[in-house]
Amino acid sequence: MKEKPIIVSIVIPMRNEEKRIAGCLYSILANDFPKDELEIIIADGRSEDRSREIVERFAVQHRNIRLIDNPKRIVPSGLNAAITLSRGRYIIRMDAHSEYPSDYVSACVRELESGVADVVGGRLITRPGADTAVAKAIALVSQHPFGVGNSGFRLGWQGRYVDTVPFGAFRREVFERVGLFRERLVRHQDFEMNARIRAAGGRIYLSPAISLTYYNLPTLSKWIQRTFRDPLWVGRAWMRYPITFCWRHGAPLALLLTAMIPLVLHSMLPSLSILALGLLSLYFLGALSSSIQIALRHGMNLLPILTFLFVTLHLLYGIGLLSGILTYFVVPREKTAFSSSAQPAFETL
Prior knowledge:
Spore Coat Polysaccharide Biosynthesis Protein SpsA, Chain A, 2 domains, nine-stranded mixed β-sheet, 15% strand
């Protein structure tokens, strides 16, 4: 009997995801898309926990699951290896830290077959990574416009063309036209890919029919580390690939520079320092009012945590972005992509 052609290839980069990968795979396998027309390729970045063992058990029971090695241990190399081996007409890039509704794959396919866009995605429903007040606050901040600007997929926008979507479902020919993910970018490679697609005339569509659940970082320390690391690669991407520039990513840098004005120019330009202090006061008022707005809905005990997270998010992001721009000129290019300090940061959002 002739095998059916593979319609959808799901590609998942993974590293040290023993707590989440089983839930991710269970949710994919529960999808209503025909299993004999679907393949799942997991690229493991040399996990040091039980992630590989868990996936191998799934692969024994499900012939359409395949585990491959990702020796470079970063997201874009894992994605590229999986895409190169894939056979599907459509390629859905998924995340091991997420879970998907039962119609996720079929909804992605319907949208792509409708011709609405070259890449489609949906709303990212963020859940706390742990059962703590801090984890809950982290998830809430990541879904508020004061925290993430006009990031449509985080804010629940629907049915519109956007600059990026979470992870994304692609027509295969998109990669043939614009190439694979940039392996020079340890992070921010999804946004760069979507920017390249848009520059080539493609469209990115945020569909009301698509959504997924993403589990955010569980602790303050991990959140602080990622809040600095993410913009580091945004800054490097700006310098190497200018098409990735985005105003919402630059807003925290503007805040940081505004905060520095009173410290640097107070004696020379006191009027400018007064203006900067006024702008900073407006910012802190915005952070406090946004925190109150969230706390009134989710618990006033979160108010001080939320305020701290908003301010820390923007200042650390600005510092990371500036560091990325500056280190682009001083760090050897071949070392920026595969530095050991970047490898543990395997998440992409």
